[in-house]
Amino acid sequence: MSLYAVQKLLYNLNRDARVRQRHDDDFEGLLADYDLTDEEREALVEGNIGLLYVMGVNGQLLMHYAALRQYAWDDYIAAMRAGLSRYGPVRHGLYTTTDGQGAV
After folding, report:
1. For 67, how many CA atoms within 13 A lie in the half-sphere containing its CB?
2. Is the Cβ–Cβ distance between 3 and 93 less than 8 Å?
3. Which among 10, 24, 30, 92 could bridge 61 via Cys, Cβ 3.0 to 4.6 Å?
4. Alpha helices of 1-103 — where are they, by DSSP H?
């Protein structure tokens, strides 16, 4: 898994106007610049916030991506909870817990 690459992309989307423009103009081309797995690429293209959360994407980065994808705050929280139900516990990163549930 390339969690770092996903988080780097989301960080850049939030910080760099040129990256944001590439997102709008050529998202597939932008994704090709990052070392992503097929699952990560699909989750990003689909805007699958729940899966990205379960993969371990930091919530501070993820909430900005959710806003970019037009998620309202309550829908963002619900998507993370739905991700836990559908895909299982958080796999990597800050939000893994000893109870296997995630921190939502």
Report:
1. 11
2. yes
3. 10
4. 3-15, 17-25, 27-32, 38-46, 49-55, 59-68, 73-87
- Tokens 């910080």 sit on residue: 15
Q: How far apart are CA 98 and CA 54, in angstroms?
A: 14
Whole-number CA gyration radius for the chain: 13
Q: Report pLDDT digits (tens) over 41-97.
A: 999 999 999 999 999 999 999 999 999 999 999 999 999 999 999 999 998 877 776
Separation between Cα atoms, residue 30 and residue 16, nearest integer Å: 13
CATH 1.10.700.10 assigned to 4-87? yes
Is the Cβ–Cβ distance between 52 and 65 less than 8 Å? Answer: yes
Whole-prediction pTM value? 0.87
